[in-house]
Amino acid sequence: MTNETTKDLVDVSSHEGPVETPSAQPPALPDDKTAVATEPAVERDGVIQTQNMDIYYGSFKAVHDVNLNFQFNEISALIGPSGCGKSTVLRSLNRMNDLIPTARTEGVVTYHGENIYAPGVDPVAVRRRIGMVFQKPNPFPKSIYQNIIWGAKINGFKGSKAEADDLVENALQQAAIWDEVKDKLQESGLSLSGGQQQRLCIARAIATQPDVVLMDEPCSALDPIATLRIEELMLELKQNYSIIIVTHNMQQAARVSDKTAFFNIELSNEGQRTGELVEFTPTDQLFTAPKEKATEDYITGRFG
Question: What is the residue-level pLDDT of the chain in tens, covering all 304 positions?
């Protein structure tokens, strides 16, 4: 990782002059590595890894000791009963939890081997590299065209009109919605159906050229036909992106994911509920021969 990209994750609010178009290169962290020298080493074979990760809301520990290794160009699913912390874990992977005043993350979370919680790392730049699609489609109250280009512009895109047109078309093509909207790009994104809106949001997320896309129950508000289209899209996108998805739908996890992490709830003697990672294995193995009894109980419907 070169010093030329070191500026990418520092505070850009005071930057003057032209800003380069965002690239899909991994984030550069501060040259001074002494701040993280004492942290435990993390095996660097995945695009995102967590080690001994605990997440708190104030004094409440929501998730305990999470160790995950998300591979390049794979779909990873996070499943488990409500309240087990899977969405909390997902949001920690691009520092979305920072937006909650009481939230804090302990342990190590690395992206391309670099700690995204290290001092000097700009969370906005992290989120540009690690995009997010939310549970409910949330297009901006702008035109379809502006929904795509606006996110790219606030992340530094300064290209010509022709380059902007190409960026919009490419993002919509990748999200498999171009043919449906190419003749109405100036119409509101809110005029689209629910499934189309979610694909528009996916296009908006990939317009900033991330290499990881997080999806928090992206199909929960969609009908079966729209859900199938999103699932087909995920399988297409993993050729160019790593995808991490939270889902309550175990059949969906079985259909689309390469690996699945099962989270459960640990109940303390004081009655405190804390999410814990039970196992993270290839999806076929988890659903046919789980290592842990708790996993088997959950996928066979004994609880959850």
Answer: 444 333 455 443 333 333 343 444 555 554 444 444 445 444 447 999 999 999 999 999 999 999 999 999 999 999 999 999 999 999 999 999 999 999 999 999 999 999 999 999 999 999 999 999 999 999 999 999 999 999 888 888 899 999 999 999 999 999 999 999 999 999 999 999 999 999 999 999 999 999 999 999 999 989 999 999 999 999 999 999 999 999 999 999 999 999 999 999 998 878 889 999 999 999 999 999 999 999 999 999 887 6
Helix axis angle, 144-154 to 194-206, nearest 10°:
30
Find, among 9, 208, 27, 28, the residue nearest to 123 by Cα: 9
241 token code pair? 């992106």
The rounded Cα 88 to chain-centroid distance in angstroms is 11
Half-sphere exposure in the Cβ direction for 74 (13 Å, CA): 17
Beta bridge partners of 274: 266
Quote the CA–CA distance of 51 and 147 in Å, as a whole number: 36
User: Phi then psi for 32, rounded to 5 degrees?
Assistant: -75, 100
Q: Torsion over CA of 193, 197, 198 and 201, rounded to 10 degrees?
A: 180
- In 43-172, the DSSP E strands lie at 48-57, 60-70, 75-79, 103-111, 114-115, 130-133
Contacts of 183 (CB under 8 A, 6+ apart): none
In terms of Cβ atoms closer than 10 Å to its own Cβ (0-12, 13-18, 19+), residue 38 is exposed
What spatial distance separates the first Cα and last Cα of the chain, rounded to whole Å? 44
The model's pTM: 0.84
